[in-house]
Design goal:
Layout lengths: L1 H13 L3 H33 L5 H40 L3 H42 L2 H6 L1
Helix pairs in contact: 2-3, 2-4, 3-4
Length: about 150
């Protein structure tokens, strides 16, 4: 049954709602730019308070956290580049829907859609973990009293 739906989706995309996919990828780009900026903020936040940490356990947590943020930053930059290239290709399809390129564009779009889903899920998990660890460190280092002064 799901194969039937999938093949209907493919058939629908062959003639392409290219303009709709073009607009959708524009939203993806905007979302990815937001995620990239949010990651920059988290990097800044960690770097700003890193100097106050005294406990080795907390230093280790922050190092691990920074590695995760670096991986997420690399992922968002890579995905942003891929989606931007795809967006340009869709723009060409809107102007002149070349049927021979349709299958490639559809396949690429579906792949990027899956990558977007995985990235957003991973981003949310990473962000939640960042705040959880930050809260733990603030409490265990008693940094909240230092920050308020």
């Amino acid at each position: 049954m799901s194969n039937l739906k999938y093949s209907k989706d493919i058939e629908f995309l062959k003639d392409g709602p290219w303009d709709e996919l073009y607009v959708l990828t524009k939203y993806w780009i905007s979302d990815l730019e937001f995620y990239r900026d949010d990651l920059l903020f988290l990097h800044h936040l960690i770097d700003k308070y890193f100097i106050w940490i005294t406990k080795q356990e907390n230093l280790d947590l922050v190092k691990e956290l920074k590695l995760g943020l670096q991986e997420m930053t690399a992922s968002v930059n890579d995905l942003l580049e891929k989606v931007s290239r795809h967006h340009v290709r869709l723009g060409f399809m809107v102007e002149d829907s070349n049927k021979k390129d349709a299958g490639i564009i559809i396949s690429e779009h579906q792949h990027l859609e899956e990558e977007m889903k995985r990235f957003v899920k991973s981003f949310r998990k990473n962000r939640k973990e960042t705040f959880k660890i930050s809260e733990y460190i603030l409490d265990s280092e008693e940094l909240s009293s230092i920050i308020k002064t």
